[in-house]
Amino acid sequence: MSNSYNKWLKFEPILHILFWFFALFFQYLKFLGLDLEASPMHCFTEMGFNMIPAYLLYLWILPTKTSKPSLVIIPLMFILNAWIYTLIDSNFHFEISHPWHAFFITLIRHVSFSLFIFALFAIKHMYKKQKEIEDISSKEQQAQLRLLKSQINPHFLFNTLNTIYASALEKDEMTPELILKLSDNFRYILHEGQKNTVPIEKEVIHIKDYINLQEKRLSDKIIMNWHESIDNYQQQIPPLLIISFIENAFKYSSMLIGQGHEINCNLSLENNHLIFFCENHYNLNQDIDKNWKESGIGIQNTTKRLKLLFPDKHNLAINAQNETFTVNLSIEL
Fold first, then answer.
1. Domains of the chain
2. Rounded CA gap, 222 and 205, in Å?
């Protein structure tokens, strides 16, 4: 609708010019039909008085939105304008048998022309209001997206710090390397994560860093099968869009007993069509730590972000069946 408003602003002056051109032309034909002298001075004088009330409405009275004074000013303006024109018009006609008749005809004509100009103003005002509503809606959406993203960021950092904390308790030699990986994650979230979009290449690197960090901590317990097929690594996507699903997979898989639990993730991009699939196993009877439960906000917020960013261009299916959790996401970028 904002584009419609901009197009209207460009097209409206043409409508004004065409309207008054045809008004002047038919005015000339009217004088010829009445066998009156159609002098240019007479034609332009009449057109000028037709325009005066119309553009006083368009440029002054309607934009000021002063309803009470307008109820008095508008009728007086039309009456005064019609009366003055009737007096001036008598100079072009030697005999006017019914001056009041001429006055009312002039008044009706002025009102008729003004109604057309009012219609143009109403259309422009409608487009303008719609644009303002869209602007407000867009700002509210951006604010909501920033809020959701700001909630995802601490959630992600909390889970990563949990990982390093567990490693430090075990006095694992990999702790310094994990901290280095965490600093890379910090850098991505603080810089790239605040942008509206990033190249998918950067997002994939961030995801792989996170996977690598979790694999180092969980060792043989988790086997991550990551596959990607991307035809354009410079394709722009919103940052931190799918990391929550991967975090969720590690969270539930890490609570399983034993080793060799697989997480299968596939990310593909072809002709601006992004498809993400993630599958992991979970124990339905496993007690979940309170902090892990609270961190579940990640998927909820990602779902809300998808609805805001791609309202009619995405499909998200999350299923938990037979102790297998699957995520299928498709987006038309």
1. 2-132 (no CATH), 172-332 (3.30.565.10)
2. 20
